[in-house]
Design a protein that fits this description.
8-stranded mixed beta sheet, 20 strands, alpha+beta, binds flavin-adenine dinucleotide, globular
Length: about 400
């Protein structure tokens, strides 16, 4: 097979890139290791920045999203049994959209299939080669047979455990990473949200987050250890722990519960790979960087990467200039490191240190009090949480 841009991975990054390039008249083939059903049911993120929604709207991908989403104009930080609202929209003029990532993936898959261009499910890439030549290739499998995809460029949108990043010689890439001594046990529950907005709770037993996906479905998280055995968490134990960590002095507040639809433990980690390009391979989304989920940034960063990449690829085909493509990594990394810092800071402020260090606990309390009591601190938080505008010049440096 031959195409202009070979895209490995049909997550949000790969599918959106395919759509953006199709609109610009550039041909792509998308390879996805999993089945369509699998990618459309995978429960992950759900908080979309306004910049993400504006882009999806501009390229005709937001019709269902705009009908079915929930709009949030603030969030609550809960500590010592008292909630403190951060009025995000008032402070920044921007709002957040709540819409499940798997719903967005369904919309992106449907849009791709409408174009009639290839989106191959159960077609795992097994490697990329000739990346520093003008004719890079992706080796993949389809119906048990080995196949070859010849391209002008390859977009590695295959997530953290994909094959594109490992195809780059080790001497070229530097990986910066931080593992955290805790993880999240996340559930999706058939229960109405107990609050109109997200609640980030810092508690002496550990962090908890009350989030939602629709007016009937809640998404809730508990801080657990990275090696937590999910079998040790029957539903009743999860609800009891959530009730404890989300409790507040106001006795009127109750946590609504219901059947648990999905349950998983996800590690929290920060990873950045530099550069995000080698020869004609461009890494985007989770294949290049991971943020701890606390700041709800992973999906939004993936969208920001492919917005930059699509513009650079279009410019390269139109003019032959490598200026924007050459600046791709630098442009994206500016945003990636800002978001890494925010996500690390939020994670550090809200999670209980495993050793229960009292010094750390008092620093966290000081940070939370400042966030709750200072408009300047709340504004800085809000600007980061609602997200930077979806732009980034090639002259920005990380
Ligand atoms: C398990 C998990 C849970 C998460 N939960 C949350 C959350 O609760 N809240 C939050 O804010 N963020 C969450 N995130 C982060 C957010 O969902 C990601 O940042 C986002 O999915 C990034 O999109 P992406 O397209 O870059 O990568 P992905 O969505 O990971 O897509 C990569 C795609 O590549 C495919 N692929 C991999 N290898 C190959 C191969 N060899 N050949 C072909 N295809 C391949 C994968 O099957 C996948 O479809 C979670 C991430 C993960 C991994």
């Amino acid at each position: 097979m031959r195409t202009q841009v070979g895209i490995v991975g049909a997550g949000p990054a790969g599918l959106l890139l395919a759509h953006l390039l199709h609109r610009r008249g550039i041909d792509t083939v998308v390879l996805e290791r999993q089945s369509r059903e699998h990618v459309e049911r995978r429960i992950r993120a759900g908080v979309l920045e306004q910049g993400t929604v504006d882009l999806l709207t501009a390229v005709g991908l937001a019709d269902r999203l705009r009908r079915e989403r929930m709009i949030h104009r603030g969030l609550e930080v809960l500590f010592d049994g008292v909630g403190h609202r951060i009025p995000l929209a008032e402070l920044t003029g921007r709002e957040l959209t709540i819409y499940g990532q798997h719903e967005l993936v369904k919309d992106l898959v449907a849009a791709r299939l409408d174009t009639g261009r290839p989106l191959l499910f159960e077609a795992p890439a097994v490697g990329c080669a000739d990346l520093d030549s003008s004719a890079p290739v992706v080796h993949f499998e389809l119906d048990g047979a080995a196949r070859l995809l010849e391209c002008d460029l390859i977009a590695g949108c295959d997530g953290f455990h994909g094959v594109c990043r490992p195809a780059v010689p080790q001497s070229v890439l530097t990986e910066f990473h931080r593992d955290y001594p805790y993880a999240w046990l996340g559930i999706l529950a058939e229960a109405p949200p107990s609050s109109e907005e997200l609640i980030y709770a810092q508690h002496e037993r550990g962090f908890a987050l009350h989030s939602m996906r629709t007016p009937k479905i809640t998404r809730l998280y508990l801080q657990v250890t990275p090696d937590e055995d999910i079998a040790a968490w029957p539903d009743e134990r999860i609800w009891a722990e959530l009730r404890t960590r989300l409790a507040r002095h106001d006795p009127a507040w109750q946590l609504a519960d219901g059947p648990v639809l999905d349950k998983a433990v996800t590690a929290l980690r920060s990873v950045v790979t530099e550069p995000m390009q080698f020869g004609r391979l461009f890494l985007a989304g989770d294949s290049a960087h991971i943020v701890p989920a606390t700041g709800a940034k992973g999906l939004n960063l993936a969208v920001a990467d492919v917005a930059v990449l699509a513009t650079a690829i279009e410019d390269w085909y139109a003019t032959g200039s490598t200026q924007l493509l050459g600046a791709y990594s630098r442009t994206c990394l500016t945003r990636v490191w800002r978001v890494q810092h925010f996500s690390w800071w939020m994670t550090s402020m809200l999670h209980k240190a495993p050793d229960g260090d009292p010094f750390t606990a008092r620093l966290q309390r000081a940070a939370l009090r400042q966030l709750a009591g200072s408009e300047a601190a709340a504004r800085a938080f809000a600007e980061n949480y609602v997200g930077l505008p979806l732009t980034g010049g090639p002259n920005d440096s990380p």
